Every structure is written in C-alpha cells, then in structure tokens.
C-alpha cells in the first residue's frame, strides 16, 4: 500500500474515493470561476424529482427512504443558492396529483414535508407556502401557515415551499380571487372585462410580488414542466438533469448556473 493510499483511507478503494473527491472539488472551483455575478438567476425553481426511483435504484424497499433523502438534499441546495447569490428558490415538494397516492405513502411523505418545513424555520429561512392549502390535511396546512407567519420578517433567501401545488389550480385560484376582490368593490363583469390584463392576474398568484423564475431545474431525466409555475415560467430558462434528486450534487447545480449564464435570453420568443 502506498503512503498516498493510506492517506485517503487505508485502501485502494479509499484512494480512489479520495482522488474522485479531489477531482470534483477542482472541477467545482473551475465552474465557479466561470460564473459571472450578473449572470446569476434571482429566482430558481426546482422540480425535485426522482426520490422513489433513487430509493429503488439503491435497493431500498421503503420508498419513504427516498423522500427523506430528498428532503435532506434541500438544505444542501439552499446553502448552494445562498453562496451564489440566488434570492428566491421555489421547491416543488408535492403536486395536487400526488395527493392521490397510496394513503400509507402519502402519510409518510406529508410527515417528512412537515418536519422539513419545521427545520427550514429552525434554520432561519424565510418560508412561504405555495399551493392550495385547503386541499391538504389540516395538520400539514397548519405547519405551513405557522412557518409563513413565524418567518415573515426574515431577510435573506426566500424559500417557496410548493405543497399541494398545481399550475392550473394556481391560475384558477388567481382568477377566482380576482373576481371576488372586484365583486366586493361592486365592479360588474363588463367593467372588469374592460380593464383586465395579465398584471391583474399576476397580482393574485401564489407568488405575487416576487420575481418570476429565471431558471427552472428538473432532476431525474424527465423533460417536461408537469404543471410547475405555468404562468410564471413563460420566459424561464430550463435545465434538465439526469440525476435523481437525492443524488443531485453541487457540481450539477453549478453546471445548471453555467448553462443559464451562457444563454442569450429572448423574452417573448
């Protein structure tokens, strides 16, 4: 055994792992050096996809292990976002379609989401629920509401937690809210039709007042939106990564930022 081999863990395997880690660190630094501060997205949307497939590929019979690994990855991502200057992150954790999953799996997933949101609060992030809370169990909805209330005055990175979220549902809710607002003012349908524009609807979205996502990342190799931020992503850039969400690495995140920075954004076409 060489002295170098022992230094990296006392075995050839340890040597290879240490060498691989060193190469990745060097590659990360190289990627970071290519990122211009003015090319960093203000708002990043993340479709954290592939938890169940990651668990199966790892030989884990209980898919909740994948959901927990995915939840743990969130905190790594937020650290990376803070380091690079991202201001807003939207995490899609549970869609409206996911609410139809098997009750046992859904119950486990909801508990993991609740614990994750509590930890986001404990770590001092500014947390905002994004979704139809009325579709969620009362306990889960309350955890999300409490998180928003407790962290409302926090500065720094804003973390949108999309739970019970569907893009079509969001637009329908926005239109419904808009109609209710004008009904209380005595505005007729005809009068509203005369003045209605896209900004009126945008003001009633779950993310009202926030910048639209500049970059949307989806893991697991899937290349579709699936209803994520349908309205807000009209001019977003997209980055699709083959890695399952629990296996998403800092180098993958930096690659996404590099890809974003290299694009010439065309708003409207």
Characterise the protein shown here.
The protein is 49% helix and 13% strand. It has 269 residues and is an alpha/beta fold. The chain folds into two domains: 1-33; 38-262, Undecaprenyl pyrophosphate synthetase. The protein has a six-stranded parallel beta sheet with strand order 3-4-2-1-5-6, sandwiched between helices. Helix 2 (12-33) packs parallel to helix 10 (250-262) and helix 3 crosses helix 4 (64-84).
Counting DSSP E segments of at least 2 residues, the number of strands comes to 6
Give the proportion of residues in helices. 40-55%
Mean pLDDT comes to 91
CATH architectural grouping of the largest domain: 3-Layer(aba) Sandwich
Number of domains: 2
Radius of gyration: 21 Å
The number of helical segments is: 10
How much of the sequence lies in strands comes to 5-15%
Strand count, sense and barrel status of the largest sheet are: 6 strands, parallel
Low-confidence stretches: 1-6
Write a brief caption for the model.
The chain is of the alpha/beta class and 269 residues long.
Question: SSE layout and pairings?
Answer:
Elements: H1 3-7, H2 12-33, E1 43-47, H3 51-57, H4 64-84, E2 88-95, H5 103-122, E3 126-130, H6 138-150, E4 158-165, H7 167-184, H8 189-195, H9 198-202, E5 215-218, E6 237-240, H10 250-262
Helix pairs in contact: 2-10, 3-4, 4-5, 5-6
Output the keywords.
10 helices; Undecaprenyl pyrophosphate synthetase; 269 residues; six-stranded parallel beta sheet; disordered N terminus; 49% helix; single chain
């Amino acid at each position: 055994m060489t002295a170098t081999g022992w230094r990296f863990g006392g075995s050839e395997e340890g040597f290879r792992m240490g060498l691989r880690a060193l190469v990745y660190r060097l590659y990360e630094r190289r990627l970071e050096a290519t990122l211009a501060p003015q090319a960093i997205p203000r708002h990043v949307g993340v479709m954290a996809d592939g938890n169940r497939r990651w668990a199966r590929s790892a030989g884990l019979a209980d898919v909740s292990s994948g959901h927990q690994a995915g939840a743990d990855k969130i905190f790594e991502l937020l650290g990376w976002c803070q380091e690079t200057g991202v201001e807003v992150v939207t995490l899609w954790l549970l869609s409206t379609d996911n609410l139809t999953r098997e009750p046992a799996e859904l119950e486990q997933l909801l508990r993991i989401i609740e614990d994750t949101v509590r930890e986001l609060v404990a770590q001092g992030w500014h947390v905002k629920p994004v979704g139809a809370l009325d579709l969620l169990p009362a306990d889960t909805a309350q955890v999300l509401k409490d998180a928003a209330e407790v962290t409302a005055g926090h500065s720094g990175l804003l973390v949108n937690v999309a739970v019970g979220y569907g893009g079509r549902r969001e637009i329908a809710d926005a239109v419904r809210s808009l109609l209710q607002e004008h009904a209380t003012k005595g505005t007729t349908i005809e009068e509203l039709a005369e003045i209605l524009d896209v900004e009126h609807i945008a003001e009633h979205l779950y993310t009202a007042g926030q910048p639209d996502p500049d970059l949307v990342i989806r893991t697991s190799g899937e290349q579709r939106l699936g209803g994520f931020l349908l309205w807000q992503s009209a001019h977003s850039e997209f980055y699709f990564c083959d890695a399952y969400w629990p296996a998403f690495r800092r180098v993958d995140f930096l690659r996404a930022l590099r890809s974003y920075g290299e694009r010439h954004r065309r708003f409207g076409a």
